[in-house]
Amino acid sequence: MRPVEISVIEDSPADVRWLKMILSEVGLKHRLTVAEDGEQAVECLLREGRYAGNPSADLIFLDMHLPMFDGLEVLRKVPGSALLPVCMLTSSERERGLMAAHFKVASEYR
Please, what is the end-to-end C-alpha distance for the chain in angstroms? Predict the structure, then answer.
């Protein structure tokens, strides 16, 4: 069985370490790709620049609060982003509403 391809778009090294620990603890065979800011995130999702040749992600953890561009701006820069397997965690009702609207609008233009 091939490893699960996971892209982590997160600027906090502590949060990346936490995620790595959890993935190891559950025994999930995975390969992790990390992007640390909005610019890297766009390259990662488009598989350009330093991320060229990377396989498509099976799962994407995307931080809403990134340097350069926030998580929603990242998604707006990636064509077809409504089809991506994105997991965003937030306690903000406003951010949840913005994300729901993005995925609804973006999916209408498929």
Answer: 31
Place of tokens 């609207």: 101
* Token reading at 100: 């729901």
In eight-state DSSP terms, residue 110 is -
Q: pLDDT tens digits for 56-105?
A: 999 999 998 899 998 889 999 999 888 889 988 666 677 777 777 766 65
Whether the pTM exceeds 0.85: the reply is no
Distances (CA, A) of 6 to 33, 35, 59, 60, 106: 6, 11, 5, 6, 22
What residues form DSSP beta bridges with 60? 7, 86
pLDDT of 107 above 70:
no
Which pair of tokens denotes residue 61? 């953890």
For the record, the structure tokens of 71 come out as 């998580």
The residue type at 67:
P
